[in-house]
């Protein structure tokens, strides 16, 4: 195995080192240096790799550095794992019978890493050559800081800075959500009558059950699968009867696109989004030059960079730290939300502006989620770590567990004694998406548990678990706990809004570390959801015991008794949620029915095709064939086991509410 001293720079560092500012310090636009040669854009020809001078752009430097970090996490992890495994094998040769085999495997990992590096170097080099307007992109980055700073206090760009705000202390729904519920029921009245098969005259809006869709996490895989399931419900007529659509992690990415001008204004936003996936997901998000390639397609480079990356500057001006996960969010929006014509998209980069698509009742209300990790002491369980859930809607942001809510447009401000003390712009949705999908910020323990659940059983899995067990004994419990609580990346930094006087900041992360389904906000005591239709395309979907465990945690936290109602089909299980039992937190107050629909393999689509196993959450590229197959699987599973069963549940819920109204 090569020693550390001979370890070469990462492929990202090697290729990016070819782009450097003019050593003479020239500030002439279009001036560049390639491999030590100076020239201008006029000098370049088809065989010359060209860049602009890199002016003093802190954002660009940090972005490229962060992209390099994100891109090389797997690479470094593999290298470190190879070195660490070999080291452990050598030092413990007397105790571990298979030390030689482990060391040999570690050498093989190193060889694979080198091959990946070489291939990535070739791809990156060709990508640089393909970006003809790289000069303009870098110049736009150099202007970003001043552009954002100039608009930071512009009331025309950020009208929210004209207002002060107080924290709302309550767990009632805000007025805007209550108003939405009224108009939504009126709007879906005809669709619901058609769905249940009766004349619209037989429908009283108060009898229409509150139906909520719930989409799981699981990276781009979940983004595609959740969208595919929703497309299937459109054909059934159910989609038009929904009230809420809540998401975790990858599903949040789908929601952000559905409620953007890219798709919300189309005749069929869901189908349009599925078609768009086939175009946008061909390049890897972690390719350091992939995002430059996406930006280069827009007609307004400065606007594209301002919208995607301006939030990093805004966050620092709001006295917050911009971390790697914030840059990850900017890369996501550059990948998923930018269109060629950007002016109509300015509103897409503020979550509060999504209400323009649904406040009149024409669409469901989206609910995004994140969690805060901490230890809570209760009389019942003693010292126990758990996660507090926070929900983000275009109306409000807050937590039922704390009873503290602020208008969405005020997220990013500092609060003291329940009032905002500064007026800064609403946090860019780029940084929110980074936070919603911040699985890399999860503690190492979460990765370990996921590995145990999703890794294929066999010698390699058993040996790695055995090695970790030996390592844990070696370092002791205290050090083991510290290691397991460590994260690869720090969670997003945000100002705390609540009633703990001594608390000024808090860190929110991907809610999938707590539960892969956004059930917590849907059993909110004031929402009174009647039916939850949950699509699970998480990495642990094949381990049903994990779903059961998370259900039990939910039941304990929310005071719910769970009844198994119909478990005949693995593609659609039905559970009753009955409230008013002892709980560890704010109790649910309304009975509802959960329709659990796991994204499982189906031989009628393709034998042994298991996307939740084959497509790991770090897979960021999908071709048209893969996407079509995922759509086909969601549709087949829905039609085969869920469509009729869910419909019967909804009709039953409607009749129950109708009969209760008539009786009273």
Automatic annotation (TrEMBL):
It catalyses: a 1-acyl-sn-glycero-3-phosphocholine + H2O = sn-glycerol 3-phosphocholine + a fatty acid + H(+). It comes from the Eukaryota. SUPFAM superfamilies: FabD/lysophospholipase-like. Its EC number is 3.1.1.5. Keywords: Hydrolase, Lipid degradation, Lipid metabolism. Pfam families: PLA2_B (PF01735). InterPro entries: Acyl_Trfase/lysoPLipase, LysoPLipase_cat_dom. GO terms for molecular function: phosphatidylcholine lysophospholipase activity; phospholipase A2 activity. Residues 19-55 are annotated as: Disordered. This is Lysophospholipase.
